[in-house]
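Below is a filled-in request sheet from our internal design queue. Each sheet records the structural input a requester submitted and the sequence that came back. We keep these sheets so that new team members can see what a complete request looks like end to end.

REQUESTER: design group, bay 2
PRIORITY: normal
MODE: inverse folding
CHAIN LENGTH: 156
BACKBONE (tokenized):
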């Protein structure tokens, strides 16, 4: 199962649309914040996508509509996702990793830094897709019987 992970679109609905069309076999799209408006617009245009999203620090007016964190079970794997600003991710990943481990997560997804990252700490897969606006990047996470793999992609 493929998950498309995007973040920090900051009003750039065209880049979000391009990422979606570059990954047509995606079963789930997770938007990690700072793009609530355009995520809502795209979801309206493409109602068949399974979109999950959280509120980012620049999603003014959406804090009552969107959660700050999300948890999903996908193919028996627990995914914890958040924008990241509440966990101080620009200063380090310690608080975020602790929060993910408290929730027994296998994968933690976050944005906010605009810098793509794939890491693994003691079996916890850590993914930041970067920014569709500032870095032209997104991530794919594949969950298969063989395991979990993540990749950073650049918009073509």
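RETURNED SEQUENCE:
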């Amino acid at each position: 199962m493929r998950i498309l992970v995007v973040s920090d679109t900051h009003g750039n609905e065209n880049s979000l649309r391009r990422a979606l069309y570059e990954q047509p076999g995606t079963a789930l799209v997770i938007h990690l914040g700072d793009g609530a408006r355009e995520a809502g617009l795209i979801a309206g245009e493409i109602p068949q996508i399974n979109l999950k999203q959280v509120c980012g620090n620049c999603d003014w007016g959406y804090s009552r509509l969107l959660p700050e964190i999300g948890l999903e079970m996908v193919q028996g794997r627990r995914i914890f996702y958040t924008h990241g600003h509440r966990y101080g991710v620009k200063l380090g990943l310690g608080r975020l990793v602790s929060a993910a481990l408290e929730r027994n997560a296998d994968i933690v997804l976050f944005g906010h830094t605009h810098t793509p990252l794939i890491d693994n700490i003691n079996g916890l897969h850590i993914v930041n897709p970067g920014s569709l606006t500032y870095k032209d990047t997104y991530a794919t996470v594949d969950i298969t019987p063989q395991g979990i793999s993540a990749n950073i992609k650049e918009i073509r």
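SHEET NOTES:
- The chain has a mean pLDDT of 96.
- Helices lie at 13-22, 36-45, 94-102.
FILED BY: M.R.
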